[in-house]
């Protein structure tokens, strides 16, 4: 398709048998050409699989998207497609939608199995025939497609002029490009609608960002300096008074001053930042600073039998309080929701499980050891929240390493066995919900807040476990399966299959009582944080 | 790395001094959230692939705070209004697509159901005013 430069006459000659087409209609059209990058490599990797996937993409994505944007699919080739649109805006939108959709489809696959389109869009005068479309406008679109990076949409200057004020997304000019078989160079623009493209252009704009941040830094510094100088003045007054009263208390004079910069990094996490990981480690590093600087205080704390919360030393880790569970057989699941079926028998080996969900205090010991990615805020005794499954895994990994004990996430079966605590009812206390038994929405006299109430605020179940239902959603080891068909019966974690999402149990303080049932289960994306998700640890014997 | 560090530090300091809040972001005026499929009034047999369309904004992973971007949520049979001061709830009628998905296999019990898309920001808050699609009705046979 792409190397077909046909001159009108020869095309006509070829169609001599069809005189009604002598007056071939010409028209202006936006031409979209897409092609899969590295198609032959993909075919080599898995011929049948790739073919099926490409067919599926064409049927489920390419064809409907073109129709949705009022385009006409002219033809498809093994690895590509060719469409025309009346509107340049619709043509580019169609390209963007396809690219964004492909990104979503690729997200859960390893890099080498990604199917990525290169898409070129051009505006040109074309000759329309029943089964094909000709003209150098088509060839230019095809050239654009060939120079486009995989996953990107390249447009010509003609398209750009038409859409620049109508379609709000980034455009990057790539200048004039000389392309094969086309006399005049063509102006090329890259469309930047997707996050990956944002990333790349962000890197390029780093210098600009740096300049902007210098200005911000200056402003912030000024404000901070003002605040500090105010504080310093009052501090000096106090210090002078102290120095006059008490004698050789040198370090205490310095300590409050060195402690001053600490409050600023604390509200770090709520502030949104383009790089979510870095501020956290920095925040953690800054937060631990005050402790070493107040040496006398640290020494005192070390002498005391109860370790102060500020102790940065990883040697003395506060281990979660664990409850040993003997194991045995139980009936898992329920008939109340499709995800909880089929009800099935599971036999478990003995294990231990945390009496409470992991608290903010416990989490922050991991953060202080720089093994967990961020410092949690809020009440120290409340469950830690806003964790992805990967965050939860990080915590148990750190705990296991630091204590040299096989700490881990509970399996889903272990969680339900522990939550039921020998009961077969909807809730551990019976079939009917009772007000004041769990921290769920409208379930008790607790204020609705951004954070769940502190751990252990409600009655424990017969195993002595708190907050098994309501409070925080708790990640377990198992990957999500939408029913129990094929689930293991030995209580082990079910980790085969699609692990793009993992199981959460318990329901949260924001969900109603149905979610606090012992059999209730749901899922969430493995690597995504959400404000009601936390964890509880388990321990192998 | 160091450059990002400085940028992050300065932004954080600035936000501390300005006491800026992350929520209440506004979406571009011409941003459009819509269902590519199914169409309003469609009758469908069994589970279906629901496809999400977004114009004039980008899709990104939840947690990534890029300008003019967000992630999809599908609200099933939800009648309560959205609270822009709260993260979009997470339960069986508020499905989240924080990994940047632009389609999902949705399995609903037979009967009439409403579907609506809501775009969430990096912290799962709706935009202010919320960027939502038309509420469509589908019938599952």
SSE inventory with pairings:
The complex is a heterodimer of chains A (541) and B (141).
Chain A: H1 8-14, E1 26-36, H2 39-45, H3 47-68, E2 71-76, E3 80-85, H4 88-106, E4 117-128, E5 133-134, H5 136-147, E6 153-156, H6 157-163, E7 170-177, E8 186-192, H7 195-204, H8 206-245, H9 250-259, H10 278-288, H11 290-293, H12 295-303, E9 322-325, E10 328-332, E11 344-348, E12 351-354, H13 360-368, H14 389-403, E13 407-408, H15 412-420, E14 473-479, E15 501-505, E16 521-525, E17 533-535, E18 538-539
Parallel strand pairs in A: 4-6, 14-17
Antiparallel strand pairs in A: 1-3, 1-4, 2-3, 4-5, 6-8, 7-8, 9-12, 10-11, 12-18, 13-18, 14-15, 15-16
Chain B: H1 2-18, E1 32-37, E2 43-44, E3 48-55, E4 58-59, E5 69-76, E6 94-97, E7 103-106, E8 111-120, E9 136-140
Parallel strand pairs in B: 2-9, 4-5
Antiparallel strand pairs in B: 1-3, 3-7, 5-6, 5-8, 8-9
Description:
The complex is a heterodimer of chains A (about 550) and B (about 140). Chain A is an alpha+beta fold and about 550 residues long. Helices cover about 35% and strands about 20% of the residues of chain A. In chain A, helix 2 (about 40-45) crosses helix 3 and helix 3 packs antiparallel against helix 4. The longest helix of chain A is centred in the middle third of the chain and has 40 residues, at about 205-245. Chain A is elongated, with a radius of gyration of 32 Å. Chain B is globular. In chain B, the strands form two sheets. In chain B, strands 2, 4, 5, 6, 8 and 9 form a six-stranded mixed β-sheet that branches. Chain B is about 10% helix and about 35% strand. Chain B is built from one helix and nine strands, in the order H-E-E-E-E-E-E-E-E-E. With about 140 residues, chain B is mainly beta. Classes of the chains: A alpha+beta (about 550), B mainly beta (about 140). At the A-B interface, helix 3, helix 4, helix 8, helix 10 and strand 16 of A face helix 1, strand 3 and strand 4 of B.
């Amino acid at each position: 398709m792409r190397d077909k430069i046909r001159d009108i006459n020869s095309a006509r000659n070829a169609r001599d048998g069809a005189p009604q087409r002598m007056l071939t209609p010409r028209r202006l059209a936006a031409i979209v050409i897409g092609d899969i990058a590295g198609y032959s490599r993909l075919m080599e990797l898995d011929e049948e699989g790739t073919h099926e996937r490409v067919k599926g993409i064409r049927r489920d994505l390419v064809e409907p998207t073109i129709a949705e944007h009022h385009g006409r699919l002219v033809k498809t080739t093994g690895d590509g497609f060719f469409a025309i649109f009346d509107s340049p805006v619709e043509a580019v939108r169609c390209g963007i939608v396809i690219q964004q959709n492909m990104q979503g489809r690729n997200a859960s696959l390893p890099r080498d199995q990604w199917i990525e389109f290169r898409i070129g869009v051009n505006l040109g005068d074309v000759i329309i025939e029943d089964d094909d479309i000709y003209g150098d406008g088509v060839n230019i679109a095809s050239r654009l497609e060939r120079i486009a990076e995989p996953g990107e949409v390249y447009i010509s200057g003609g398209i750009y002029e038409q859409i620049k004020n109508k379609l709000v997304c980034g455009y990057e000019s790539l200048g004039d490009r000389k392309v094969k078989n086309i006399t005049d160079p063509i102006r090329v623009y890259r469309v930047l609608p997707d996050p990956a493209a944002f990333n790349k252009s962000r890197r390029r704009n780093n210098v600009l960002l740096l300049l902007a941040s210098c200005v911000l830094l200056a402003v912030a510094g000024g404000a901070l300096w003002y605040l500090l100088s105010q504080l310093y003045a009052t501090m000096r007054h106090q210090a002078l008074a102290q120095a006059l009263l008490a004698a050789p208390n040198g370090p205490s004079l310095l300590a409050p001053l060195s402690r001053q910069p600490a409050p600023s990094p604390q509200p770090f996490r709520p502030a949104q930042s383009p790089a979510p990981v870095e501020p956290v480690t920095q925040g953690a590093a800054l937060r631990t600073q005050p402790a070493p600087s107040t040496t006398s205080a640290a020494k005192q704390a070390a002498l005391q039998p109860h370790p102060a919360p500020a102790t940065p030393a990883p040697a003395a880790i506060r281990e979660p309080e664990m409850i040993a569970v003997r194991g045995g057989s139980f009936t898992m699941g329920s008939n109340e929701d499709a995800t909880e079926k089929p009800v099935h028998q599971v036999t478990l080996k003995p294990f231990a499980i945390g009496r409470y969900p992991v608290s903010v205090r416990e989490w922050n010991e991991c953060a202080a050891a720089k093994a967990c990615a961020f410092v949690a805020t809020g009440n120290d005794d409340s469950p830690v929240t806003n964790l992805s499954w990967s965050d939860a895994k990080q915590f148990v990994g750190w705990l296991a390493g630091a204590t040299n004990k096989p700490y881990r996430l509970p399996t889903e079966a272990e969680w339900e066995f522990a939550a039921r605590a020998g009961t077969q009812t909807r809730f551990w206390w019976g079939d009917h919900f009772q007000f004041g038994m769990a921290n769920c929405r409208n379930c008790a006299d607790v204020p609705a807040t951004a954070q769940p109430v502190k751990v252990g605020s409600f009655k424990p179940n017969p195993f002595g476990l708190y907050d098994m239902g309501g409070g925080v959603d708790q990640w377990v080891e198992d990957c999500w399966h939408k029913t129990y068909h094929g689930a293991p019966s030995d209580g082990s974690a079910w980790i085969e299959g699609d692990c793009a999402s993992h199981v959460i149990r318990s329901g949260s303080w924001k969900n109603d009582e149905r979610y606090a049932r012992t059999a209730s289960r749901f899922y969430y994306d493995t690597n995504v944080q959400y404000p009601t998700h936390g964890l509880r640890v388990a321990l192998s014997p | 790395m160091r450059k990002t560090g400085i940028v992050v530090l300065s932004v954080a300091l600035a936000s501390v001094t300005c006491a800026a809040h992350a929520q209440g972001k506004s979406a571009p005026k011409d941003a459009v959230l819509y269902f590519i499929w199914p169409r309003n009034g469609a009758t469908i047999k069994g589970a279906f692939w629901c496809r999400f369309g977004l114009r004039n904004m980008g899709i990104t992973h939840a947690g990534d705070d890029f300008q003019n971007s967000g992630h999809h949520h599908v609200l099933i049979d939800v009648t309560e209004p959205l609270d822009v001061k709260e993260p979009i709830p997470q339960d069986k009628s508020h499905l989240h697509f924080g990994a940047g998905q632009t389609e999902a296999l949705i399995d609903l019990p037979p009967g009439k159901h409403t579907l609506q898309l809501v775009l969430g920001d990096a912290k799962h808050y709706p935009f202010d005013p919320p960027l939502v699609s038309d509420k469509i009705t589908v019938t599952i046979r």
